[in-house]
Amino acid sequence: MNTRDKIIGVFTFLVLSTQLSAQQEPLSTFFREGNLTQTNPGMTGAVYKHAANILWRDYWIKKTPLNLPRQTTFWTNYSYKIDKINSGIGINYRYDALGYQKRNTVSLSYAYHIPIKSLFLSIGVSGGINTLNRNYSDLTFASPVPNPDYNPVFTSDFGIALRHEKWNTGISVTQWNNPTFRSDNSTKNYTLDPHFWWFVDYRFKLSEYWDLTPRIQLATDWATLSTTIQLLASWKKNLWFGVGVKNAFLKNAFSTHSFTISPMIGYDIKGMFRIGYAGNISNTPDPYMFNLMTHEVIVSFLMK
Q1: Residue 26 structural domain
Q2: Is the dihedral of CA 38, 105, 260, 266 positive or negative?
Q3: Cβ pair 31, 219 in contact under 8 A
Q4: How many helices (H) and strands (E) does the chain have?
Q5: Number of neighbours of residue 96 by Cβ within 10 angstroms
Q6: Matching InterPro entries, A to Z (predicted)?
Q7: DSSP state of 183
């Protein structure tokens, strides 16, 4: 590696570190009513008696002089609706790897459901353990950089959701207790910032066989603002397909801006099993941080 590549490599690492600080919570293309408990605990048990989801997202990042590995995010969750006490309980797990950083999050969620005539109000909280690991052993610096040994931290979320037969909406905050990872062998701590979320969807019944559902999701930590708009068509409540666009702006020294288009398709089997795929094509002016293609797959079990 020549001097120029080393300089570019260190610069890229610093840019990546800045983006990690501002984009701590990964976004999923599939923010549907059955798997929204990861960002809004108010959706726990709000729609289905049983809801189990497995979601995998793989980011294909353009190769840099540092040979940064591509990002992978894995979610899985389960929620159960308890009608006798107007409640829902759930468990969530997420693994997120970006560059040389890996995070694991396990949390339990609870929501209380309040019927209001034709509406359904749900208020939920969640709490769990978050771990962080950083491995700098493969990076090239003038002097060795030790791998910090971060202690696990407690993290909590809060959310409110409002449901109708034709629409859903909700607001929430994740990492609202501002947990901070502290290391015994490093002076640099790492703080998780609160992230604020809002979503809304509305189902239009076009005919006996066709439904059309627009969806919007906003996510921000006051450093990054991400706006996603989707349009999803459903045929006979089984085959569904559509497209989404996401506009993200990162307020930092580089004022990074990205635009993503996401075609998606899926199939619901007997109203209980769901499989889906989304491909995300991104564009950003940064030549060293460029998502050529992102693949996302979801498998769900949903029973009312």
Answers
A1: 3-303
A2: negative
A3: no
A4: 1, 17
A5: 19
A6: PorP/SprF_Bacteroidetes
A7: B
Q: How many CB atoms neighbour CB 92 within 10 A?
A: 24
CA distances in angstroms from 4 to 1, 13, 65, listed in the order given = 8, 14, 10
At 8, which CATH number?
2.40.160.60
Closest CA to 47 of 21, 73, 81: 81
Report pLDDT digits (tens) over 62-72. 544 445 556 79
Give the side-chain half-sphere CA count within 13 A for 282: 25
pLDDT at residue 137 in the model: 67
- The pTM of this model reads 0.85
Provide the 10 A C-beta neighbour count for residue 241.
15
Element (H or E) spanning 15, and its range? helix 3-22
- 18 backbone dihedrals φ, ψ, rounded to 5°: -65, -45
**Higher confidence at residue 16 or residue 282?**
282
Q: CA angle, 289 as apex, 286 and 291 as ends, to 5°?
A: 110
**Cβ atoms of residues 289 and 65 within 8 Å:** no
Q: pLDDT tens, 207-223?
A: 999 999 999 999 999 88
Contacts of 299 (CB under 8 A, 6+ apart): 53, 54, 55, 273, 274, 275
Cα distances (angstroms) measured from residue 280 to each of 51, 114, 260, 283, 288: 25, 37, 6, 10, 18
C-alpha triplet 147, 151, 154: angle, nearest 5°: 140
Mean residue pLDDT of the chain comes to: 84
> With 90 as the cut, is the pLDDT of residue 230 above it?
yes
User: At 14, is the pLDDT very low, low, confident or very high (cuts 50, 70, 90)?
Assistant: very low
C-alpha to C-alpha distances, 243 to 233, 240, 265, nearest whole angstrom: 9, 11, 9
Task: Please count the structural domains in the chain.
Answer: 1
Structural tokens at position 245: 């666009």
Q: Is the pLDDT of residue 11 over 60?
A: no
Structure tokens at 146: 């030790």
